[in-house]
Amino acid sequence: MTATSDYDSGVKSTRPVAQSDRIFGSLTLAAAVVVLLVLLGVFASLVMGAWPAFKEYGLPFLWTAKWNPVTDKFGALAPLCGTVVTSIIAMVIAVPVGLGIAIFLTETCPRVLRRPLGIAIELLAGIPSIIYGIWGLFVFAPFMQSYIQPFLIDTLGHVPVIGTLFAGPPYGIGMLTAGLILAMMILPFIASLARDIFQTVPPMLRESAYGMGMTRWEVNRHIVIPHVRTALVGGIMLSLGRALGETMAVTFVIGNAHRISGSILAPGTTISAAIANEFTEATTPIYTSSLIALGLVLFILTFIVLAAAQWMLKRMKQKSGA
Amino acid sequence: MFITRLTLTAAIAGATLASAAAVQAADISGAGATFPYPIYSAWAKTYKEKTGTGLNYQAIGSGGGIKQIESRTVTFGASDKPLGGDELEKNTLVQFPTVMGGIVPVVNVEGIKPGELVLDGETLAKIYEGKITKWNDPAIAKLNEGVKLPDAAIAVVHRSDGSGTTFNYTYYLASVDETWKNDIGVSTAVEWPVGLGAKGNQGVAANVDQTKNSIGYVEYAYALQNNMTYTDMINKAGKKVAPKAEAFAAAAANADWSSQPGFGVILANQPGDKTWPMTAATFILMHKDAKDGAASTEALKFFDWAYANGGDAAAKLDYIPMPENVVAQIKKEWGQIKGKDGSAVWSMNH
Question: What SUPFAM superfamilies does this protein's entry cite (chain B) (predicted)?
């Protein structure tokens, strides 16, 4: 059945249809090309803006921890570390919890709760990041400083090896707080994506598994998750991209200090937070250029993450023989 | 994600600029230092009631103010860090001070009330260098006999954006401490050895307010408005002073305003028994060759009005108005600002 048969009922020739299809085809192609052009444009202008910094410092810019506006010595390591560490903290917390919420909603949740919970998650996902930032600074950070951080310092702080992770005074704000806020921000994102993905699993598949006497755990572990693995990894990578680039909320609670510390309680900075904080104030051309170079680093980092995701998906497909 | 955000920001910024241009006929546009923002907004409110002309002032920090005036997106830029003569020359800028104020250390230590704690420059520098890390450190205890200091780590708060307040603050620390002068230096942004960064005077105020056992530095008006606990200081003469209008005025009294081009005098660590050591003036930057002469005239009219009528409002926020003889010199400088037709946009009989 073709889409045109009912509509034109064969009275008109097929020529206009073919033409409209052609126009439609080129329009969608144009839309796709625009994205590529914009991406290339952004990349080119980032490279151009970052050029003076890379000419001055060379590749060591990437592993220099110094950030000194007085002497015009800049390096990307501290914000780069901060970006990676806060994103890891966020993912470690948000992925299992988000998947848990999604499985609960699709598998075990009582029907009455399903809608209100779903709406609540979508509402959480819709809160602007600056609201998370303000709430983080005025509500969450004092709570961290008074209760969570002293507890972590007194207990885990004395454990050998991992103790350094929880050393230092309880500032309230810092890498851990930023990571937790990030986790809260991407949690609804992961949960609602994963729920939508789980709902694509054919009911037949599930029902036959239950019919064979599998438990809920077994159904989810061996049937549901393997079935949607590809989409799930894609969704998680999207959330990671969101965590890597999140700016406003992080700026409020991370402490904005260009330092690398062994402790996740210490203040740090991320690439996007550093750019947001310092861009309007960068007084020398090399300072501005260094900030744009930071932007380029984030661009490439995000690209690597997405490429790695693609590669992983490909490997998974090969393994499962699809 | 980052890319979408950037494009979005650009789009919003573009829209804001477009709308700003549309209302420019009625409003004076300026951007820069956050230090004088409380007094500029107080002046702008009264001026709008009197004349109908509004002021659109964006407190984005001194570095931003210098950048915006150089790229001519605003009628005037504002900076707490005075530009040097060659920098003024290079960008054909006129520079003049509007008010003076004080930078004060603010603390959040349980049981300590405003003015209860005394610090001196060296101790302050050592705290910001990370060499004094506890509130009950002997150096602090020695200055504060009889004050109960907690055995708690000091949480240091500084500015994360480039700022004139930081410039004046680091200038003071460098003038009292050799290590600071040699290892860290003086600038609108420095490589801080310890502590956490917050954006703007308001950001530092909020962070100190939220963080127990913290210390920060803000313009005095911000400390007042947020009911913050400020400390007293030991000045260059070795006397204990409280941050008050007369202490800021004492610092300004002996300044030789004509000694530097563009009145670029830095008031940190001045001599005198009653002098507050962290006093600073804040400056306005305008182009000598104005792109929009009428807008420059409106801006100068506003500052002329502020010099004549803004003293009471300034005093309420503990800013110090410029002395009359300096104002007379400033108005002479305004004669250098010329419109497109080459005639001065300001004359004394406005």
Answer: Periplasmic binding protein-like II
